[in-house]
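Inputs:
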Amino acid sequence: MTRDRLLQILAPTVVGLIVLAGWSAVVSWNAIPVYVLPGPAAVGASLWNDGPSLFGSLWVTLRITAAALAAATILGGALAILFAQSRILELSLFPYAVILQVTPIVAIAPLIIIWVNDAFLALLICAWLVAFFPIVANTTVGLNSADRNLIALFRLYRATRWQQLLYLRLPSALPYFLTGVRISGGLALIGAVVAEFVAGTGGQETGLAFRILEAGYRLQIPKLFAALILLSLTGIAIFALLGWISRRLIGHWHESVIPHEE
Amino acid sequence: MRSILATEGLGKLFRNGTKALDGVDIVVEEGSFVSIVGPSGCGKSTFLKIIAGLSEPSFGALKWNDPGGREGQISFVFQEPTLMPWATVSENIYLPLRLKGEGRADVASRIAEVTEAVGLAGFERSYPRELSGGMKMRVSIARALVTRPRLLLLDEPFAALDEITRLKLNEDLLKLWREQGWTVLFVTHSVYESVYLSSRVAVMTRRPGRIAADVPIDLPYPRDAATRVSPAYGDYCREISGRLAEAMA
Ligand SMILES: Nc1ncnc2c1ncn2[C@@H]1O[C@H](COP(=O)(O)OP(=O)(O)O)[C@@H](O)[C@H]1O
Ligand SMILES: [Mg+2]
C-alpha cells in the first residue's frame, strides 16, 4: 500500500474517531438525556437491537431506489439518444425536463401519491423524477461532444447515422452518462426517502423514512440515529458501487478514472 | 503523366462573409507528392476539406479524372491523431473498413499489413493513451492507408511533434509513398519539410488563398539525410522561402 493510499484511509478514520469521542464526551459531561441526543454507545446498541427490523425497512427503500435508478437510467439514456437524433425533439422537450427538475419533489409528491393508487409505484415515480434529469442532461451533452474531426472522418467514410451513433456518439457519451448515473444514484435514494416522508405509512410495507418519522414521534432518538446511519451507509454504498461499475466500463481509456502516475 | 484531379478557379466564401479561397488552380498528377505551403489562415485546410468532399466549393470547379470521382478513393490525416480513445490501435485502424461493412476477420490480414508497415507491430492491443504523439500519428496514418486510397490528404500532420519524431515520420511516410505509389496532397507550414518530401511544392498567398507559385522539386528519390545537406536542397528551400515571402507581402 502506498503512503497516499494509507493516508486516504487513515485520515478520515482519525477524524471519525475524534468526532465520536467528542460527541460521547459532550453527551456524558452535560448529562444530555437520551431522548434529546443519545451518545454513540446508545446509538450503537440501538443499531444492534433494532437493526434486523430496520433492515426490513431499508430493503423496502432500497427496492424503490434501485427501481427508480434503473428506470431513470433506461428512460434518461433513451431520451438523450432521441434528443441527439432530432434537434426539434430536443428543443421542444428539454425545457419540460428542466421544469420537472427545478420543481421540488416535496411539492409534487402529494399529487403523485393521490393520483397513483399503488404505493410502490407512486414512490418509484417520485424517486424517478428526481433521478432522471442528471442522466438526460449529461448524456445529451456527451452525445454532442464527439470529436469534430472524428465526425468529419465518419462523414468522409460515408458512415450512416446509425453507425455514427453506435461507433462514435455512444462511446463518446459513455463517461458523461456514467457521471450522470452516479449523481442520480444518490438522488434516487433522496427521492425515495422524501416521497416516503410525504406518503407517511406506505401501506403494509414501510420504508426507512417512515421508521425515522415513527422513531421521532415516539422519542426513540437512538433508533432514529440508527436509521439515519443506515441511510447514509446505503448512500455511500450506492455511490461506491456505481463508481466501481464506472471504472470497470471506462477505466481502461477515460482520463477521469485513470490513476495519476507517480 | 496522368492527372488525378484538377481545380479551376476554385473558391470558398463562408456564410459569415469570410473569403477563404479565391481562384485556386492546381493539377495533381497521379502518383505525385504535392505539398501546399502558405501562411496560417490562408485557406489550406479549407482547400483539403473541399477536395475530400467535407465542404462544398462556392465557385470554380473541382474535376476528377475518373468518372467515379472521389468515391472510396480518399483518406484524410488531420493535424491531431483524431483516434477513438476507447478503441485499441487495431480497432482504430479497422474503423474505415468497419464503416464499409467489412467483417473484422475478413480484413485481419490487411490490418496486420498496415500496422506492420507503419511500424506499430506489437502495439495492436494498446490504447491511444498509452502511445507517444508520434505513435498516435502512425496509427492515424495506418487508418488512412487501410482503405488502400488513391489519394492521401494530410493536413499539417506532424506540426505538433518534436523535431526528431517529425524527421523520422517524414522518412517513413516517404518510404511508404515510394513503395505503395498513392498520390499525396500534403499541407505544411514548414518549407524544409515540403522540399524534402515533395515532387512539387505549391505556395499559397495570404487569405483569400490562391496558388502563387508551383515549383517542381527535381531532387532524386530516394531521399535521405544526404539530401538535406545537398546544395540543391538548400537552393530549393531558399527559393520556396522567397516565394512564400512574396506571397505574404
Ligand atoms: N466554417 C468556417 N466559417 C467561417 N470561416 C471559416 C470557417 N473555417 C475556416 N474559416 C476561416 O477561413 C480562413 C481559412 O481557414 P483555414 O482553411 O483553416 O486556414 P489554414 O488551414 O490555411 O490555416 C481562416 O480565416 C478561418 O478563420
Ligand atoms: Mg489548417
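The interface with chain A takes residues 49, 52-54, 74-76, 78, 80, 82, 84-87, 95-96, 98-100, 127-129, 147 of chain B (CB under 8 Å). Flag for discussion at group meeting.
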